[in-house]
Amino acid sequence: MKRWTKSDWLILLGVLVVAGFFRLWQLHAIPPGFQFDEAYNAADALRVSAGERPLFFEANGGREALHIYWIAPFVAALGANAFALRLASAVVGSTSVALSYVLWRELIQDRTVAALASLLMAISYWHVHFSRYGIRAILMPLMLTLTLYCLWRATMTGERREWVIARAAKNWRVSASPHWLFAILCGVLLGLSLYAHPAARFVPVIVVAWFVWQWWQVWKHSGLSLLVIALVALVVFMPLGLYFLNNPQAFLGHPTVVAITDQRVGEGSVLAAFGANTLRVLGMFFVSGDTAWIHNLSGRPVFDLIVAAFFVIGLVVWAKRIRQGEPAAILILLWLPIMLLPTLLSDGAPNFSRAIGVMPALFVIPALGMAQAIGFVARGLPQLRYALPAAALLASALFTFDDYFVRFASAPETFVAYDVDKLEAAQQARALAQSDRVYVAPLLAQHATFALATGDAGLKSFDNGEVVVLPARDEQRGMTYLFPVSVDPGYMDWFEHTYGTLAHRQVVDDSRGNVLLYAYRIAAQDIPADARLLPPALPVAPQKIVNVRFDNAIELVGYRIAAPQSSEQPYQLTLIWQARQSVTQDYTLFIHLDDASGARIAQRDRRPGNGSYPTTVWSPGDSVIETYELAIRDKSARLQFAVGWYLVGDGARAHVLDAQNIPIDDQFRFSAEGTP
What we know:
Largest sheet: 7 strands, antiparallel
Shape: elongated
């Protein structure tokens, strides 16, 4: 490697300043919101901060651990918010740009090309976008830069160095570095990269292909270096590898689902799917890029028109260097197509998140084109030799600035893609929780962004299509149930049917004046003091009061039965429960329908709310009401219900208590005709 000078350090500083500006400016506000992938990452970072040390994070389709461990200190210091995650990405992105200069300064031995390539990466919309997005993809350019730098330093020494000098241009030089140290470092980084992103599974292919090319050119197998790299990488990867061996679905699950070999993706023809993907991926550079708003200004190609022109010129220069056998050109030739495979072989091509591993190699090609233009101008107007690339870089930077900070930042689709509505819904829910007991429809409650933003607000959730819940009466606090605007209207119709005139609907708007939430509120004075006092007009009010206690924690207040009117109709049994105290165990309800001889006619076993409101979240005084359907064939038989609770783990049943709290049974029986 040519000795670094003051100019190199100044270039590196300038590159870092440009990269830092595009990655840090307005980071607290752009992009808006807190996208759900980021929220999952933040939640897992909290787990790491709390002392957990997983090798793989299984939620959200499964994610490798390196990114989570990287963001954990940022989350610990700044909180589980979007800014903390995006700052971590901005640091990685800026570092990747700076190290790309070091990489190309070493490989190409041309300060101008190295500077141009790193500056193009610094102002690239694609890289800027992911440098401001708190997901794992941003690690790929960094890991590839470090891994392949060490690969180069480990292999381009000794006899191979002499061969390079003989075969390459006269100004080509390669340092005689301590290659065994770099071989070990390459192995460490190669192993670590597999903890970063699924696309990193293709990086070993680049390493092997590089050794194959060297062997073919030099006619001497450099297997010892490859063996060192492979063994070290294997040792580093082994913990995760053993995890994947014991949990193959974690390794294969998501990649298998999105692969073109899947029937849903390939539609029966893998070759046709690959061909279509190839055309779309080739088109992403100049015609149309990723259409997903979380990855891109939808449809924006990788290169603007200015950089695209230099890319075309650079292709010619690059092809010439490949023909000359320049190792750096060959390495890029191996790098680019291999790291395009993750998007070529999967759905939604081009997918910028899966293809991000082509950086920083991709930017060498337009940099070669710019360097060629500099040389052409220098022959005629040497005083203007740098004016053309400077103007081109400035124009491209302005395109990126406008596309990202103006068009993308203000697009309505960005607000949706980055879950601004979920953050605003969380703010509204937290505000309502100051005066009411707030319940949230599962569709919203289970969204990672909403869940993270309301984790300490004391909200609850249940599926109103499965269960009716009323909290204990509190003279100061009412009840509010929140539906997101995207809810099926049938759920709101059913809510109005089951809660009747108790609930009153309100519409909550977002910051842009659009409907955000539908809120159904029951005023404090309208909440019945006891489930026995539910208004008779409600379809869930008890017809028969029984007051049966199970382990003094859960009480069956009463029930109502709708007997079938025809052979096609089932029995409908509504059970009205009330929590006498907090329930620490997760019980499952059983309902048996037996004939007079005790033979089982029908049976239902289900956790409350079909699992959406388990007994462990019941609060003292909660009324929990569910309706069950049991189909039978013989409508004339005399039938009897038996209901009770059991634990799934060991089958232990809750006991029915008498007035003296003495267990007398483990189920309560009553006639299907309604007479106990």
